[in-house]
What we know:
alpha/beta; 13 helices; 43% helix
Amino acid sequence: MTVARYFSQDYFEARxxxxxxxxxxxxxxxxxxxxxxxxxxxxxxxxVAWLGPRDAERVLVSISGTHGAEGFCGSGVQLGWFESxxxxxxxxxxxxxxxxxxxxxxxxWLRRVTEDNVDLNRNFADFxxxxxxxxxxxxxxxxxxxxxxxxxxxxxxxxVLVAYVEAHGRAALQAAVSGGxxxxxxxxxxxGQTPTWSHKTLKTLFSxxxxxxxxxxxxxxxxxxxxxxxxERICAADPQxxxxxxxxxxxxxxxTCPALxxxxxxxxxxxxxxxxxxxxxxxxVTAIALEYGTLPTEEVKLxxxxxxxxxxYGAVNSAKGRAIKAQIREAFYQDADDWKQMVWDRxxxxxxxxxAGLTSKESETVG
Length: 367
């Protein structure tokens, strides 16, 4: 049997199997009920499995579904970690916390965003202060999210984006489109104007479940950026921060940092590590996003724009709607055995390095 068996076909199967695998592994399970419902009125929940001592000072945290439709990947790793027996590798005094589908609405509805059309990984801004502007997005907003979606529109808007690249460069386009924006609630990469349910839930988990922790390693699973099947270890920390120093100590040169220009990701506003650190101020949080490539970037962005149009103007259950949902699924989940094997191998290596980092002398001295 291959590792492909760890990966589920939808949110509801993933949720059931996660709970069953966690229970068999002896984990303590908890559910946080989402106020919304699935496409057919189903219950939605963020589920949590805890393995190891409750008062552990060192905890490995894995997160799936920050961007809902990307949840297939992280959920598969979390399920496999329990089913394979690797969860039994925990060093003495170290706990493992698996947060399954932190954005259950997006996972269930095959959307990257939450029920508020918010990008959860842009939603940890300081909402008590003026929100950061994004002049590039303002310029491109109409082209990125047009009211019609057909071949002629796609071609015309692509010409606008190409002209922007010619005038400002490809990096400027990436920053404008995906860096995060707070001015267009119906647009893509919208960071919101208040904390979402998923934002509040994540901070509650860090403030309550991790109250005893002094060292927290976070691996947040993402897909859709970079070469197919490659897991890029992205650290969103500032270049001079202790968090980046710990990532360097734990993972060596095999990591990237958007602030240093070494990542396939642009610098993003309001990322979730900000919330983790604020909710667990007593701990050193060493966090990475493990980002796996799927399709070429332009195809992924096109799928996101199509999905945005669909939920504003289209009908999800139409032939066009189903085609767009298939496009979204392919952009964030490669239902192929070789891709799943690459995901799994990189995840196991990374989680083992994180556990080693938690128990290393460097984790006691760096930062």
